[in-house]
Amino acid sequence: MTHAAERPWELPEDPQALAQVRALSHVRALTDLFGRRPDLTGVYSPADLTKEAVLWSA
């Protein structure tokens, strides 16, 4: 098991890996928000685009 897997609460030092962690965190938060608030669909187009991308990648 790698060091990062042992301590998931620690952020990576690599800027590229850190950017990926941020992007995945943002997508996860939007997915959770749409799951709890389906009435927000159509209000914020970047969020709608993210939702569609997650659905198509599953």
Task: Describe the protein's architecture and organization.
The protein has helices at 3-6, 15-36, 45-57. It is mainly α. It has one domain (15-57). The longest helix is centred in the middle third of the chain and has 22 residues, at 15-36. The protein is elongated and about 40 Å long. The two termini are 26 Å apart. The mean pLDDT is 75.
Compact overview of the structure:
By secondary structure, this protein is an all-alpha fold.
Helix/strand structural class: mainly alpha
Rg calc: 14 Å
Gap between N and C termini, in Å? 26 Å
| Domain count | 1
Number of beta strands: 0
Strand content: under 5%
> What is the helical fraction, as a range of percent?
55-70%
So what's the overall shape?
Answer: elongated
- Assembly type of the shown chains? single chain
- Mean pLDDT figure: 75
Residue runs with pLDDT of under 50 for 5 or more positions: none
Total helical elements: 3
Q: Major sheet: size, sense and barrel closure?
A: none
Order of helices and strands: HHH
Summarize this structure as a short list of keywords or feature phrases.
about 60 residues, mainly alpha, about 65% helix, 3 helices
Q: In terms of topology, how is this protein built?
A:
Layout: H1 3-6, H2 15-36, H3 45-57
